[in-house]
């Protein structure tokens, strides 16, 4: 039997939830970042945009992360769901859930990308793209939000957010890059 611990972090941009085996004391990371299997539902209006967001993280990390798109969700390590609104959302427009073992190995992540806010406003394309990049950052292993409003990992969505050097350093600390 496994005991799971779940932590929630409630923010405007997103909700991040992770479960890990009891007594886990390490931050999770993927053991195969250069060959991650990703499932994105095909033929959705957001499919291509989501692929571009994954490609942007590969580019920024100089291919230290490579995402291989597969056509069924079960074998995927990262699954993407396009939803009308984020489940149980208060003000959140994205959600990432992931699971890791006590030794810190990430085993599965699920990203939810909303079409609308909880009160029914349709999100603009660039807002959705910002959320995609942000949630992928969580799914790669960044659990903390940035305090820098320019950072893609800042918890409140705005028009100027990008993947910054500081975000790449956060990943570098997790993965042990120099
Ligand atoms: Zn977040």
Please name the defining characteristics of this protein.
about 180 residues; alpha/beta; Collagenase (Catalytic Domain); about 25% helix; disordered N terminus; binds zinc ion
Describe the structure in your own words.
The protein is α/β, with parallel strands linked by helices and 178 residues long. It has a single domain (26-175), classed as Collagenase (Catalytic Domain). Helix content is 23%, strand content 25%. A 7-stranded mixed β-sheet has the order 1-2-6-7-5-3-4, covered by helices on one side. Helix 1 (47-60) packs across helix 2. Mean pLDDT is 86; it is low at 1-11. It binds zinc ion. Zinc ion is lined by residues 11, 13-14, 16, 134, 138, 145, 155. Zinc ion binds at residues 11, 13-14, 16, 134, 138, 145, 155.
């Amino acid at each position: 039997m496994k005991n799971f611990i779940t932590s929630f972090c409630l923010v405007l941009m997103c909700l991040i939830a992770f479960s890990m085996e009891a007594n886990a004391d390490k931050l999770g990371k993927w053991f195969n970042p250069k060959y991650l299997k990703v499932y994105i539902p095909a033929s959705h209006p957001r499919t291509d945009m989501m692929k571009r967001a994954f490609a942007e993280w590969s580019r920024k990390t100089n291919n230290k992360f490579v995402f291989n798109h597969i056509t069924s969700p079960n074998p995927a390590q990262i699954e993407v769901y396009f939803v009308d609104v984020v489940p149980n959302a208060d003000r959140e427009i994205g959600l990432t859930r992931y699971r890791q073992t006590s030794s810190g190995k990430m085993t599965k992540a699920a990203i939810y990308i909303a079409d609308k806010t909880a009160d029914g406003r349709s999100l603009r394309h660039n807002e959705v793209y910002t959320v995609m990049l942000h949630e992928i950052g969580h799914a790669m292993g960044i659990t903390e939000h940035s305090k820098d409003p320019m950072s893609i990992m800042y918890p409140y969505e705005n028009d100027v957010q990008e993947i910054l050097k500081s975000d790449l350093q956060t990943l570098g600390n997790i993965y042990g890059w120099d």
